[in-house]
Task: structure prediction
Amino acid sequence: GGGGMVERLLEAIGDVESLTDGVMFHGENSAALSSMIARHRESVKCVYIDPPYNTGGDGFAYKDTYQHSSWLAMLRDRVAITRGLLGHDGVFLSSIDDTEQPILRLLMDAELGSSNRLANMVWKGATDNNPTRIATEHEYIVCYAKALAGTEAEWKSSVNDSKDLMLKEWQRLREACQGLPELQQRFREFIRNNREALGPITHYDRVDEEGPYTGSRKVHNPGKEGYRYDVVHPRTGRPCVQPARGYRFKPETMKDLLASGKVVFGEDESQIIQIKEYLRDYSAGLKGLVELDSRVAANVLEAMFGSRVVFKNPKPVELLVGLLAFVASPGRSVLDYFAGSGTTGHAVINLNREDGGRRKFLLVEMGDHFDTVLMPRIKKVTFTPEWKDGKPARPATHEEAERSPRIVKVVRLESYEDALNNLEPRRTTAQQRLLGEPQAQGPDGLKEQYLLRYMLNVETRGSQSLLNVQAFTDPTAYKLKAKRPGSDESREVNVDLIETFHWLIGLTVQHLGAPQTFRAAFERDSEKRLVLKGRLKQEDDGPWWFRKVEGVTRDGRKTLIVWRRLTGDPEQDNLVLDTWMKDKLKISTKDFEFDLIYVNGGNNLENLKTPEDTWKVRLIEEDFHRLMFETEGA
Result:
């Protein structure tokens, strides 16, 4: 039709990609990672995975006794692709247990380099009551950088529960107290009564109108002689003792610090002055040992779904929030290609709610729980952060709602089973008769060689799984048989050729146009050339259908993609295309803004170019087929 509500909404939005907060892939993770390369090459800030632990009970299929090598080969292939997705400042984190931790470290040393190993964190999350052996109560999180130099300054986090608690109490007391002395007294009482909960930040025990603060000895000049001048104590009127090597600040800078109230004085001039450090600027360091009860993860799922058995061994959201606060700066992407129940996506949403960031998540999962756990969980936590017995515990506040994801894209990939189910062998009577001849039989005979080398290419040519480019005549009607989740039954589903092509060429979509349909009448001019009789008429049931997409490829080329429905009359189709391009898109202007134009179906758009135009026209089918089946390094 002429564009439904969703299409018209996207048309109005314009910059679609910037509003997409996450993408969830349902499919095999190796295929998903390969599909991401064109669009997300060297742009992902953090990869976190929780792969199968090779315990024999985690669903990973092994060959005979080659368990370690099978597991290693599976993971190595995926980590190799991961390296291409990580940005230069990217970080790779992987949970693992004792069994495969040494093997994983060897793998990561080989793929990312032992010099880029950041740490081997320990997560104590369980209690082992088995009295017959040494209790195993921990797992590991191996941490690597894409390039260590790019991450050295980033292992700090401004997200801290103790810090938030203190700032909220200061805000409450500031509204309740009569003056600064009472505020100071009651704030210190609060710290004394909550030392254990507040941990290492109890020294931020002084307050002013800007918040809690502590004194820092940043006035000392390190390593060499500094500046010498007097700083007068405001109560005694005498110069304060100077640091051993003088002040690190110039006199003009010290005057500014004094004028803005940033200098902290001691009881008298015998103490060296200090500089105020406000709690709001506090950044915590990341510890190598994390203690967090793993049962809280099951509690979260029980609250959201009303059951503790929806997913086995989920990771705690708090564990991932704590990690991502350090390594995933606001506005960057977090990738998890063993997404499981969706803890990583949940953590990204929570973290964005805490600090107002716009981190994006890329989640990949192939199990049936994609539809039963992962996607419902992301929907639920997007709606509101708190749940109980499978129902919202309270409505989200306005601020929480504002920091929830706007658009989450779901991409379903064709499985290997689906690919096989969509192969349609076709053998002619003549082919069958020839293969049945006596001289074609036997080892190395014609029949054996044909079956081994040629049958797949010859007899399945034109199958939907092998990209039937003839079906591109109607981009909205390409179909595949897909297995229903949780069963062996297949159903026919539409394939989104438009979205698939975006991933293949690595397009960041900036504008997704609503579909348009037209009618046209034709006549022949005096030279027997086909021309329009009148103008193109936009009508919902017209036979000529167009949809345009504008965006930028990873190498910076501005790209226009034109999808159209072909009627079977190339002369009419191309005349309508030329007219639509000239009348609707003004393609013949000399300062045309695109570098590439993609169109499905044979066309003569190159004839529209003027000598000043630099854009190139490419056939969608050709690049689609090449990118679908090219191998790495080819």
The two ends are 41 Å apart (CA to CA). The CA atoms of residues 14 and 511 lie 5 Å apart. The first helix runs from residue 5 to 13.
